[in-house]
Specification:
This protein is of the alpha/beta class. Helices cover 51% and strands 14% of the residues. The protein has 22 helices and 16 strands. A six-stranded mixed beta sheet has the order 8-9-10-6-11-12, sandwiched between helices. The longest helix has 41 residues.
C-alpha cells in the first residue's frame, strides 16, 4: 500500500516503523513494508554488559557503563543523548573503531559470533564530510568505485554502480558540481552528507554505521538525508541494519526510527522501540507535552548540563540529575530491559552464520594508479596549493635576482653568495610549509577515512601522494630556481645548475615529508603548523650559517642535532656547489691577491670537505625516504600517539 506522506498531526508524534520513505522523482512517499526479518541475509549486532573505560590518572574512568542492546536487519537504531554521553563511543565500539587508549569489556556479537566485520559487509559514515574539494560529486564517487571494487569488475560496471548510487541519494542533478570548501562554492551541507553516504554504500553493505548524519544541517535537509538513509532498506531486497548516533532530530526525523537507545553519562536511560519511549517516560512522571517534539523532550530531561532549564521544563522542580537517576533505575528494573536481555541471549544462541567476506579490494597496482590520477586532478585544479606557491616563488626569485644581481667574484660577493643561498633555501622551505600544510591536511583526512573503511592501505597512499606531486615540485624547483640562478650570476655550468635545482627539489620534497609526519600526529592545523614550523626554524638556526659549526655548543646542538639536521646538508651542498671552483679577489687589500672557493669553504664557512656535494644530496634524499618510512610507522600506530599529543596540547591550552 502506498500513501502520500501525511502532514504532522497536532499530537505527540510516534514512530511508524511499518512505513519507510521511497522516492519518485522529487516526491517523498511512504511505502508499507513487511515487519518480519525474512528476506536476504542480514546482519544482527548484539552487545551485552558493555563497559568502555579510558585512562584517568592511575585509574580508569568509565565512558560506557553496562550497556546491552541489539540492532536488527531492516530497522534503524538511533543512539541519542546529550553531548558527552557516549553516543560516538558506543558507535565506534560496535564498529570496531575504538581508540587504543580505550578498553572495553563485555560481548559484541555479529550474527551471534565474535568476529571482525569483513570488508564490503559494513560501512561507516563519519561526522566530517572528508572529500577532495575540487572534484565533482560524480568524480568523487567514480574514483571511490575504482578503489573499492575488484579488478574483475569492468570500468563500465563501476561507473554504472556509481551513477545508480548517486540517483539513490538524490544527487543526479549535482553530479557535475564540485564538492567545494569554505572558501569556494560547491555542494550544500546536505548534499555533502549524502555524497559521504554514497561512498560507503557503493558496495551495498548490509550493516551501516552513521556518526551524527544530520550534524550541521537544517531540519529540511536533515529529514531529506535521513529519509534517503531509511529508503536503503528497500534497495535490492536486502534488509540492512542501520545504526546512527544523532544529537537532536526533528519530529519528522524521529518518526523514521524503529528502535531507540537513550544514553546519559554513559548509562542506558531507555532501550527499545522508539514508539514506546513516551510511555516509559510518562510512567515515570515525565510525559511528553502535547505538540512537543518527543526527542527534544527526552533530551531536555536527561541533560544535566543546563540544570535550571531542565528543572523548569519538568514542571515539578525535579533536578535533572535526580530525573536521570529515576529513569536509569526504572529502566534497570523494567520489563523492557528484561526483554532486551532475553532478546540478546536469544540472538546469541541462534546460529545465523558467520559473516563471509564477499568482496575483494582493487589490486594494489590499480589502487596506486587511481590515487595518482585522483590526486593529480585535485592538485591541477587547486589554485591555492602548488600554483599559488609557484607564483609566490617566482616573485621571490625575481626579487632576489634584482637584489643580488650579477654578484661577480669580488670579496663582497663571498658574503653575498652565502646570504643568497641561505635566504633562498630558508624561504623555500618555510613557504612550502605555509602554502602546503592546509591542502595536505585535507588530503590526509580523506586518506584516514578511506583507510579505516578498508579502501586501500598506507603504501598505496604514499605512492599516489609522491608521484602526483613530483611534477609540481619539479616545476617549483626549476622555474624560480632558474630565475634566481641566472639573475644572480651564480657559478656557470650545466652541472652546477642541475645540482642546484635538484637540491631545491629535495628541499620541497623533504618539507612535504615533514608535513606528512607532523600531520599524522597533529590533532589540528594550528598545532601542526607550530610543530612543523618549530622543527624547520630549529634546523635553519643550527644549519651552519647563523652560527658556524665549530662555534655550536657541542652537547645537544652539535651532537647530535647539527648532524641530523636536513638543512645542514642543504646549506653545505649548495655552498660546495657555488664556491668550489671559483677564485675570489681580495680587492680590499689592494694588489692581485686572491682566495679560492675551497679555502673559503673550509676556513670561512667551516664546511666538511671530505666528501663531495653529491654525497650531501644523497644524504638529503636518504632523509626523505626515512621521513616517509617514519610516516608509515606512525600511521600504523597513530591511535597510540594521537591521544598523547592531544593530551599535551590540551594541558598547555
Amino acid at each position: 500500500m502506498t500513501t502520500l506522506y501525511p502532514p504532522v498531526q497536532p499530537k505527540v508524534l510516534q514512530t511508524n516503523p511499518q512505513f519507510l520513505p521511497t522516492f519518485e522523482g522529487d516526491a517523498i512517499k511512504l511505502t508499507e513494508i513487511n515487519g518480519s526479518d525474512e528476506g536476504k541475509e542480514g546482519i544482527t549486532v548484539t552487545w551485552e554488559n558493555l563497559w568502555v573505560t579510558v585512562p584517568n590518572g592511575k585509574e580508569r574512568k568509565p565512558i560506557l557503563k553496562d550497556l546491552s542492546g541489539y540492532a536488527r536487519p531492516g530497522r534503524i537504531l538511533a543512539i541519542m543523548g546529550p553531548s558527552g554521553c557516549g553516543k560516538s563511543t558506543l558507535l565506534d565500539d560496535l564498529a570496531g573503531r575504538l581508540s587504543s587508549n580505550m578498553k572495553h569489556t563485555g560481548n559484541i556479537l555479529i550474527n551471534g559470533h565474535k568476529q571482525e566485520l569483513a570488508y564490503g559487509t559494513s560501512g561507516y559514515v563519519t561526522q566530517d564530510d572528508a572529500m577532495l574539494s575540487t572534484l565533482t560529486a560524480g568524480e568523487t564517487l567514480y574514483y571511490s568505485a575504482q578503489l573499492q571494487f575488484p579488478d574483475s569488475m569492468s570500468i563500465a560496471e563501476k561507473k554504472e554502480r556509481a551513477d545508480i548510487t548517486l540517483r539513490e541519494m538524490g544527487l543526479q542533478d549535482a553530479i557535475n558540481t564540485r564538492v567545494g570548501r569554505w572558501s569556494s562554492s560547491g555542494l550544500s551541507g546536505g548534499q555533502k552528507r549524502r555524497l559521504s553516504i554514497c561512498i560507503e554504500i557503493l558496495t551495498r553493505p548490509r550493516l551501516l554505521f552513521l556518526d551524527e548524519p544530520t550534524s550541521g544541517l537544517d531540519s529540511a535537509a536533515s529529514y531529506y538525508v535521513m529519509s534517503r538513509i531509511a529508503s536503503l532498506n528497500l534497495r535490492d531486497g536486502v534488509r540492512r541494519t542501520i545504526v546512527a548516533s544523532i544529537h537532536q532530530p526533528s519530529s519528522e526525523v524521529f518518526e523514521l526510527f524503529h528502535d531507540l537507545c537513550l544514553l546519559s553519562n554513559g548509562e542506558t536511560v531507555y532501550f527499545g522501540p522508539a514508539s514506546d519511549a513516551n510511555q516509559f517516560f510518562a510512567s515515570n512522571g515525565f510525559p511528553c507535552p502535547t505538540l512537543h517534539n518527543p526527542s527534544d523532550h527526552y533530551l531536555r530531561i536527561i541533560n544535566k548540563d543546563f540544570e535550571q532549564d531542565a528543572e523548569e521544563g519538568l514542571g515539578k522542580g525535579v533536578p535533572a540529575e535526580q530525573a536521570i537517576d529515576i529513569l536509569v533505575k526504572s529502566y534497570r528494573s523494567s520489563r523492557i530491559r528484561k526483554q532486551v536481555k532475553k532478546e540478546v541471549v536469544k540472538i546469541g544462541e541462534s546460529d545465523s552464520g558467520a559473516i563471509k567476506k564477499r568482496r575483494t579490494h582493487a589490486a594494489f597496482r590499480t589502487q596506486c594508479l587511481v590515487l595518482i590520477r585522483r590526486s593529480s586532478l585535485q592538485l591541477f585544479r587547486d589554485l591555492s596549493n602548488y600554483w599559488l606557491r609557484l607564483a609566490v616563488f617566482i616573485v621571490i626569485a625575481a626579487s632576489i635576482g634584482s637584489i643580488f644581481y650579477d654578484l661577480g667574484t669580488s670579496y663582497g660577493s663571498i658574503q653575498g653568495r652565502g646570504s643568497l643561498l641561505t635566504f633562498f633555501i630558508s624561504v623555500l622551505s618555510f613557504m612550502t610549509l605555509v602554502g602546503g600544510f592546509s591542502p595536505l591536511l585535507e588530503e590526509m583526512k580523506v586518506f584516514e577515512r578511506e583507510r579505516l573503511n578498508g579502501h586501500y592501505g598506507i603504501t598505496a597512499f604514499l605512492i599516489g601522494n609522491i608521484f602526483s606531486a613530483v611534477p609540481y615540485m619539479l616545476m617549483i624547483a626549476l622555474i624560480p630556481g632558474a630565475i634566481a640562478y641566472y639573475l644572480c650570476g651564480m657559478q656557470k655550468g650545466v652541472e652546477h645548475f642541475l645540482f642546484f635545482t635538484s637540491l631545491l627539489f629535495a628541499i620541497v620534497m623533504w618539507v612535504e615529508s615533514l608535513m606528512l609526519v607532523v600531520g599524522s600526529i597533529s590533532p589540528n592545523y594550528v598545532i601542526g603548523m607550530f610543530l612543523a614550523g618549530g622543527i624547520e626554524g630549529l634546523m635553519i638556526l643550527i644549519g651552519g650559517f647563523y652560527r658556524l659549526p665549530n662555534d655550536l655548543p657541542k652537547p645537544l646542538w652539535k651532537y647530535p642535532l647539527y648532524y641530523i639536521s636536513f638543512l645542514k646538508y642543504a646549506f653545505q651542498g649548495s655552498f660546495k656547489n657555488e664556491f668550489d671552483g671559483i677564485t675570489f679577489s681580495l680587492d680590499q687589500y689592494g694588489g692581485n691577491k686572491t682566495i679560492s672557493g675551497r679555502e673559503i669553504l673550509t676556513e670561512t664557512w667551516q664546511l666538511e670537505m671530505g666528501y663531495s656535494k653529491w654525497v650531501d644530496l644523497a644524504i638529503m634524499f636518504g632523509m626523505i625516504v626515512l621521513y616517509r618510512v617514519l610516516f608509515l610507522a606512525i600511521t600504523k600506530s597513530k591511535e597510540k600517539l594521537k591521544p598523547f599529543v592531544a593530551a599535551i596540547s590540551s594541558s598547555r591550552a
